[in-house]
Task: inverse folding
């Protein structure tokens, strides 16, 4: 069985890392898995790139910027990512068909990588693993709680549009025309929330939609000695450390830094210090009344595991989220997590068992959750539960078996197992 996983990058960014982990988990189970990307950052021989010549590499660098050109007409657009995916001369479908896989497993394919029109030319059965909402909206990656994706888009909140027939409606209509030709395309929501949202969408009516989570290598993300981890990072050993981090941790409003700031202003405790990764120290950092350590970007998994092991608590205050890598990674390192009860967070965080689910967007309850975990009389039990949850539901062996079962189903029409 030959599987081709398609993603814009291999290891650059959260979506890429989640996809690459699925690829590696399949290889570990003896599956002939190959990854095809627009830009390759790793030296993994099982990852193929479209950009082998200097000219193609330059084009691939420019492709995401060119794809955003239609957005210049929407001056009131919010900061939420919106991908027109109209720019298409990557010839990726020719490459896919030349590889001749048994199953094509798509993931994050925006940034000029694939257009909707390209999908019908792919000869192999398609599985599409959803890392956000883009595949079933008129272009936004998160809908900011707009419900138009259930109908036909238009009046796009993310675009700041008040017109029925705007860019989102144009993209929606194009997707509808293409998807109607792909009734056998299988859709995977990596969280229960995203799978349910896909089922509610008007674009994926009639498609098979499943929930299979992202995965993690628990031999890398595992509990390490806290004192040694803190010593490596020059963090104090006599403080309770609260961690926050993500790609563009401070600049992306969806990551909830403003809400976290509000919660931290309410937090009291002389023995607390705050740790931030994924962002450098801003020019005018907020003063929470306790020391804050800005660690900048941390890209390799070993360093991330060391960081999660060094702290007492991870806070993920995202306003919308599919299945956060940070939550899975932290729990795997036996570090409890606090987050809002939104999106896929409840797939991972079990209330007062391995962390705390705060009321959606309630910053006072977020603060209460931080205090509850830091002062929990059964804190050691929370840590044990955190690790056990990941081993049970997200370990690479467990998740790979679900994907293999799905691929086998697809290649044997008429046999549909419960995944």
Result:
């Amino acid at each position: 069985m030959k599987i081709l996983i398609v993603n814009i990058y291999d290891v650059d960014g959260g979506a890429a890392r989640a996809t690459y982990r699925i690829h590696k988990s399949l290889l570990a189970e003896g599956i002939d898995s190959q990854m095809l990307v627009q830009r390759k950052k790793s030296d993994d021989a099982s990852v193929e790139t479209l950009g082998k010549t200097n000219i193609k590499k330059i084009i691939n660098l420019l492709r995401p910027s060119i794809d955003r050109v239609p957005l210049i007409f929407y001056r009131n657009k919010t900061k939420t990512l919106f991908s027109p995916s109209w720019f298409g001369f990557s010839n990726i479908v020719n490459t896919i068909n030349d590889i001749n896989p048994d199953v094509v497993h798509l993931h994050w394919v925006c940034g000029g990588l694939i257009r909707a029109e390209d999908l019908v030319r792919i000869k192999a059965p398609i599985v599409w693993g959803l890392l956000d909402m883009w595949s079933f909206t008129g272009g936004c990656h998160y809908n900011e709680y707009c419900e138009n994706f259930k109908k036909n888009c238009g009046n796009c909140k993310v675009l700041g549009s008040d017109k029925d027939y705007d860019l989102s409606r144009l993209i929606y209509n194009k997707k509808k025309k293409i998807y109607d030709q792909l009734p056998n395309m299988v859709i995977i929501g990596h969280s229960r929330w995203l799978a349910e949202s896909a089922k509610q969408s008007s674009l994926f009516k009639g498609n098979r939609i499943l929930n299979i989570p992202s995965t993690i290598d628990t031999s890398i993300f595992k509990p390490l000695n806290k004192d040694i981890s803190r010593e490596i990072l020059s963090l104090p050993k006599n403080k309770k450390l609260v961690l926050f981090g993500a790609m563009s941790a401070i600049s992306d409003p969806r990551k909830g830094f403003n809400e976290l700031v509000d919660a931290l202003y309410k937090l009291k405790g002389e023995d607390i210090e705050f740790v931030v990764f994924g962002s450098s120290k801003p020019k005018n950092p907020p003063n929470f009344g306790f020391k804050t350590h800005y660690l900048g970007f941390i890209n390799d998994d070993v360093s991330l595991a060391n960081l999660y092991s060094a702290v007492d608590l991870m806070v993920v205050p995202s306003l919308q989220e599919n299945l956060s890598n940070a939550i899975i990674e932290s729990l795997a390192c036996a570090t409890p997590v606090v987050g809002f009860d939104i999106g896929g967070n409840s797939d991972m965080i079990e209330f007062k068992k391995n962390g705390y689910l705060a009321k959606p967007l309630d910053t006072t309850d977020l603060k209460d959750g931080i205090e509850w975990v830091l002062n929990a009389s059964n804190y050691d039990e929370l840590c044990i539960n955190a690790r056990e949850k990941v081993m049970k539901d997200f370990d690479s062996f467990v998740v790979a078996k679900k994907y293999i079962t799905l691929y086998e189903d697809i290649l044997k029409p008429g046999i549909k197992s419960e995944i």
The radius of gyration is 21 Å. The chain has a mean pLDDT of 92. The chain has two domains: 2-215+396-410, 226-393. The chain is about 35% helix and 15% strand.
